[in-house]
Amino acid sequence: GIQVEQSPPDLILQEGANSTLRCNFSDSVNNLQWFHQNPWGQLINLFYIPSGTKQNGRLSATTVATERYSLLYISSSQTTDSGVYFCASPTQGGSEKLVFGKGTKLTVNP
Amino acid sequence: DAEITQSPRHKITETGRQVTLACHQTWNHNNMFWYRQDLGHGLRLIHYSYGVQDTNKGEVSDGYSVSRSNTEDLPLTLESAASSQTSVYFCASSESSGSLNEQYFGPGTRLTVT
To answer: What is the distance between the alpha carbons of residues A107 and A90, in angstroms, rounded to a whole number?
Structure first.
């Protein structure tokens, strides 16, 4: 099955800084999701992005399926952005099952 | 609004007891999933279902079972709880039209087995 790797594992920022989180996958994908797990443990859907670029406020994501990676950009970070960011992809083509990366833990300091 | 709920949110049980975690969704999604989250492992798939009466094993299914008697619910049962099953459990659901379907997650259940 597909392998999903995220980098960096940990990231510490000052409020207002920008950041880029990366997700690499071992095979071509036709579905890629980004989630934010907040400090209370809730998993929040950020982007469903099989390919191309999407933006939602200060966050944007780009998936380049042919090169097997996706990037999550956070601009003008806020303390509420703290938490763990996960990317996930189907285990294989046509599958509904997701395999998750181990996440990037983001800490935004005031 | 449609949603996915889990109960209980927190549970403490003793080794050897049977435990059932509930998951209920009101999106009318055919696909439902159970994951567990542990430090160092991220989220791993336990069981999943693509519709009523359909159940399948995931990556870490040993010691767990599910049943799907209706579209809305997929309860997860730990037949004989073990300390290794202390974890946070998440239920998720998605539509069923191929692989391009976004999964939505419940709030999670924190289970402690003593």
So the answer is: 28
β pairing state of A104-109 and A10-14: parallel
Residues of A with CB under 8 A from a CB of B: 30-31, 33, 35, 41-43, 45, 48, 50, 86, 88, 90, 93-103
Strand partners, A61: A54, A72
Q: For residues B95 and B7, is the Cβ–Cβ distance under 8 A?
A: no
CB atoms under 10 Å from CB of B18, counted, come to 10
Amino acid identity of A7?
S
Cα(A77)–Cα(A44) distance, rounded to whole angstroms? Answer: 17
3-state secondary structure of A81: helix
State pLDDT tens for residues A8-66: 999 999 999 999 999 999 887 778 999 999 988 999 999 999 899 999 999 999 999 88
- Residue A94 has what pLDDT? 60
H/E run at residue B6 = strand B4-7
- Secondary structure of residue B47 in the 3-state scheme: strand
Contacts of A100 in chain B (CB under 8 A): 35, 42-44
